[in-house]
Amino acid sequence: MNEVQTYKTFGGLPWTPKFVEGIDSAKCLGCGRCVKLCVQQCLGLESFEDEEGTERHVATISDKSQCIGCQSCGKICVRHCYTFKEKSG
User: Can you list the domains of the chain with their CATH numbers?
Assistant: First the structure.
């Protein structure tokens, strides 16, 4: 049976982790705030050259297996680039 795992916060409130599922690279500014914030080191920055030849960056999920489901990356993102998913089972 695939049941969503629910835990409790320190204060006893219910909490369901939601793990990083994807990053919308079209919205991402490449500021790196999410990468610096992630204590699990799940995220990274990828460099690329845009149409004008300017070096740009976008956030990437470098190690999804390390995600603890805190959603801090999505909360700090001013462009709302992140999607999250509950882990069942």
Answer: 7-86 (3.30.70.20)
